[in-house]
Design brief:
It contains 20 helices and 29 strands. By secondary structure, it is α/β, with parallel strands linked by helices. Among the domains are: about 140 residues, Rossmann fold (3-Layer(aba) Sandwich); about 100 residues, GMP Synthetase, Chain A, domain 3 (2-Layer Sandwich). A seven-stranded mixed sheet has the order 5-4-17-16-18-19-20, sandwiched between helices. Strands 12-11-8-6-7-14-15 form a seven-stranded mixed sheet, with helices on both faces. It has a four-stranded antiparallel sheet with strand order 21-22-23-24. Strand 14 and strand 15 form a beta hairpin. Helix 8 packs across helix 9, helix 11 packs across helix 12 and helix 14 packs across helix 16. Bound molecules: 5'-O-[(S)-butoxy(hydroxy)phosphoryl]adenosine (WT7). 5'-O-[(S)-butoxy(hydroxy)phosphoryl]adenosine (WT7) binds next to helix 12, strand 20, strand 23, strand 24 and strand 26.
Length: about 625
């Protein structure tokens, strides 16, 4: 496999001279990118330096306690991420700075200063306390992209409760499973939200989930639209009415740095989503440091991470890291191409956004609409761009660089996962870029590409991406399931964390991520387990067996395609195809809707009865099938 190493984009002089990372290096007498990576091989030193940039109630006794595969960072420290994200700004000029410029899909704009955000967080924290939510209790948050979403998260964290945000595009069934696993006491939702001009009934979804969630004592409902909803007396309360009763002062609880901040469910290779556990101290250090040094956040920046807070990208880079840095962020509620394909560029121009962070899927969508939509707007405020969620194809990279970044803005292709909490492989703004490569591991991070025996793969050859050292914002475990944590990430090769990604390292040490190497798809930058789609389908009365594979899609990266055998007496039909697509959509959410469904009399299986998805995939892509000696049928 060869790489286009000749296509190198050197960092602009302004970043070499004035970026946050250059200043940091200068203060320590570090003279270049390579030397920085070399010095940070002492990763405990590096992360302790990063941790010193945050405010601790009590400093740590020990930077790291590593009992493979369980890590503790900043051991013995007392900390709360909300003290860093809000409280400490009340003593500086950041108090009156705008934290969020929020735009709704219909077009209202709200500007929330740090002080306003802090006061509303305090009120909601007091409201939660009044409902009996205490330290360690779980709260499920099922909200769209409205200011109440970060406020609800911060309110939980402030009092030491654990939030579990469920993406508002998930179905009531997906919501129910996540509430049950978390055993949440309170659910926070909205009556409805807008998506492409249509109201989405979040409260109705929540009510449907609630029939099987005995742990939930109260539901707090944000009045987002005029839509009427049924409120169950004694259980349901309106956010505005609850908040109005409370004081806007609330103490932030000092927590152990290892106290759980949140769980976030993500797909794995089984049908059951995993509750990824992140903690206050280490997560704060990893996210704040990476945002500050990768995206070079300065006081005057207007940062736009155009993700949804329902995913890890939004947790880390719309909520916690920007707030800890006292940054101003854009938060937009709706679809990027609504009502016209230049909705984003309108916002970007009006607010003079300086840093834009989005996904290859979004970039490819804009490419398809054509460059004329961005060309109508003045995007010259931009100075830095970012990409996340999937490998970016060089063609999309170059389009983004030219038509959005005006051939002037370096692109930070950040590789990471829900589990890693923060970017792990990514350029800094002083790194020479190669389109399509996330470049090198960040300082303090050790990534390798290994072959199937766990030994380093030869340069230029494909293998599996693994992590060799712990890092502060790593997941601590899977909620209520430490065995699955060990099994899933640490059992394949001793001492190596399995990312699940295929990758290649080139002769310059640059890493090229190639997509998932396991039974997980990456649909429009979102993770989806093939087993989840299959188990949704076999729950349909007509379906006997189902096999899901990912097939490439021009815009979305991968999309699910399924093969189905029907129960005796059932007939394949176009109507059934439509019904099954809709079924998956309501069982999981619209992102899981299969692109294609094919009926088969039989599915190919191994002698032990496992469906050979690999074979189906090879057939679907018209590729060589490879070794099928274990095939039964
Ligand atoms: C998977 C993690 C991290 C936030 C969004 C997704 C893929 C992520 C990149 C990138 C190539 C990427 C990987 C990873 N991925 N960023 N820059 N280049 N692949 O979070 O749902 O936890 O998915 O997304 O396959 O394992 P997630």
């Amino acid at each position: 496999m060869t790489t286009a190493t000749e296509e190198l984009y050197q960092p602009p002089k302004v970043f070499l001279e004035q970026s946050n990372i250059s200043n940091w290096m200068r203060q320590r007498g570090i003279t270049g990118y390579d030397q920085l990576l070399e010095r940070a091989r002492n990763y405990e030193w590096y992360w302790a330096e990063m941790a010193k940039e945050l405010a601790w109630f009590k400093p740590w006794d020990k930077t790291l306690e590593w009992k493979l595969p369980f890590s503790k960072w900043f051991v013995g420290a007392q900390f709360n991420i909300v003290h860093n994200a809000l409280d400490r700004h009340m003593k500086t000029s950041t108090k009156n700075k705008v934290a969020y410029i929020w735009e709704s899909e219909p077009g209202e704009v709200e500007r929330w200063t740090y002080e306003q955000l802090w006061r509303e967080t305090n009120r909601m924290a007091n409201a939660l306390k009044r409902l009996g939510v205490a330290k360690g209790d779980r709260v499920t948050i099922y909200l769209p992209m409205i200011p109440q979403l970060p406020i609800a998260m911060l309110a939980c964290a402030k009092i030491g409760a654990v939030h579990s945000v469920v993406f508002s595009g998930f179905s009531s069934l997906a919501l129910k499973d996540r509430i049950i696993d978390a055993e949440s006491k309170v659910v926070i939702t909205a009556n409805a939200t807008f998506r492409r001009g249509k109201a989405v009934a979040l409260k109705a979804n929540t009510d449907a989930a609630m029939t099987e969630c005995p742990s939930v004592k109260n539901v707090i409902v944000v009045r987002r639209t005029q839509d009427a909803v049924t409120m169950q007396p004694g259980r349901d309360l309106w956010w505005d009415e609850a908040a109005k009763k409370e004081s806007d002062q609330c103490d932030t609880v000092a927590l152990d740095s290892e106290a759980i901040l949140f769980t976030l469910y993500t797909s794995g290779t089984t049908g059951k989503p995993k509750g990824i556990v992140h903690v206050h101290g280490g997560y704060a250090v990893g996210t704040a440091a990476t945002l500050k040094y990768v995206f070079d956040i300065k006081d005057k920046d207007i940062f736009w991470c155009a993700a949804d807070i329902g995913w890890i990208t939004g947790h880390s880079y719309i909520v916690y890291a920007p707030l800890m840095l006292g940054a101003t962020s854009i938060m937009y509620e709706g679809a990027p191409d609504w009502p016209e394909p230049d909705r984003w560029w309108k916002i970007l121009e009006r607010e003079k956004v300086t840093i834009l962070y989005t996904s290859p899927t979004a970039i490819r969508m804009h490419m398809k609409y054509g460059q004329q939509w961005a060309a109508k707007h003045n995007l010259s405020s931009l100075r830095l761009l970012g990409s996340v969620g999937e490998p970016i194809n060089p063609e999309a990279w170059r389009w983004y660089y030219e038509h959005i970044g005006g051939n002037r803005c370096p692109i930070m292709d950040t590789w990471w996962q829900t589990e890693t909490g923060c970017f792990l492989v990514s350029p800094l703004p002083i790194t020479p870029l190669k389109p399509g490569s996330a470049t090198k591991p960040l300082p303090g991070i050790d990534v390798d590409v290994v072959d199937s025996s766990g030994k380093p793969a030869p340069i230029g050859e494909g293998g599996f991406a693994v992590l060799k050292n712990p890092w502060p914002s790593m997941l601590r475990t899977i909620y209520k399931d430490p065995e699955r944590y060990k099994q899933n990430y640490w059992s394949r090769w001793p001492g190596l964390y399995l990312t699940g990604d295929a990758a290649m390292k080139d002769e310059d040490g640059y890493i090229w991520f190639r997509g998932r190497a396991d039974e997980v798809l990456n649909v429009a930058g979102h993770r989806l387990g093939t087993a989840e789609v299959e188990s949704a389908l076999v729950a349909h009365p007509a379906v006997a067996e189902a096999a899901c594979i990912g097939v490439p899609h021009e815009v979305k990266g991968d999309v699910p395609k399924v093969y189905i055998t029907l129960k005796i007496g059932q007939q394949p039909s176009e109507a059934l195809v439509e019904e099954l697509k809709k079924w998956v959509s309501t069982q999981i959410g619209p992102i899981a809707r299969p692109e294609a469904i094919e009926f088969r009399d039989k599915l190919p299986k191994t002698r032990s009865g496992k469906i050979m998805r690999r074979l189906l995939k090879a057939q679907a892509l018209g590729k060589e099938v490879g070794d099928i000696s274990t095939l039964e049928d």
